[in-house]
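queue> holo job accepted (zinc ion)
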Amino acid sequence: MIRQAKAVRKVAGKGVHAARRGRAVRKLRAAKVDAMLVTKPVDVGYLTGFTGQDSSLLVGSGWACLVTDGRFTEQVAKDCPDIECCVRTGPMEAALAGVLKGRRVRKLGFDPKHVTVKLRNDLAGKLGGRKLVEVSEVVSSLRQAKDDGELRIMRRAIRIAEKAFKELCGLGPKGWVGRTERDLAAELGYRMRQAGADGLSFPTILAAGAHGSMPHYSPGSARVKAGQAVLIDWGARAGGYCSDLTRVVFTGTIPAKLREIYEVVRLAQEAGIAAIRPGVGCKAVDKAAREVIVKAGYGGQFGHGLGHGLGREVHEAPGLGKLSTVRLKSGMVVTVEPGIYLPGIGGVRIEDDVLVTAGSARRLSGLPRDIDAMRL
Ligand code: ZN
Ligand code: ZN
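queue> job finished
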């Protein structure tokens, strides 16, 4: 069943999706492709405003059709009344072929990273003379630079994460010592929900003491002790966008070794952020921060990239790492998160979300970073 596009309702911000589809189509034209199949949910949402799942978008010059199923008919009408909708009752490939019937599409682009081999094969069998062509990164490259509306939502996702964290820290050492990592992580998540989050950006990392040396530790049944460092990496998802922050807090006296590495990491983060401006290679930003850690003798204990793009996904392009070939552009939001990890002792990572602006870099997150402010 294909519902024809309703007259475009005057809904604030709705024109934004049509403009994004226009930019995507211009990229397709440059690649000599007539239309594209978009299957990745965050890309579908970016181009349409649709907030449901399991739906694919076909987009071509001057037209777009969302192929969904009966669970989402009401959702589509609410989220994106300005585009055609096909509510499929059979297999996805048959519905897609039906939508393409009668349209001037000789070459249909698809992103090989987000189309299963099965869908590709099944669709190829139904397209007649049309050709399927691999086109990569069309939508993800558009998503890198955020517009004002996206930045407003991202600031909200960051504020929610910060509010919940401040509340948890406000319980003081008595509210932390003796509780399990899992319990504290759950409370942080609950407080983010109370503050307006739709969910977590990713499962919270909350690592007590020596567990902090594992960058992607999963909180368990270990109980927080007095005089310990606790590394927390958390984020709120709101309005379809993510925040991603890391802080280390101390439940009493700060161990000397952790004080030493904390200061190195803090200075490395400053150096990374100072290097951020439009036109600079992501690799150079990573290098600026990494040099501080290498000079302090901990180069071997910083085993991950400096940061990553942030937006509808918690990890998206561009990556700030040694291998990146991307140059920063105004409007990109990246995390800057150097770390030093000492097995058997613990770890320190400080992560903030940073906007690349015409002038330089603007921290969107405002939690304290000074070590003495991190004592509960
Ligand atoms: Zn993080
Ligand atoms: Zn991160």
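queue> The two ends are 59 Å apart (CA to CA).
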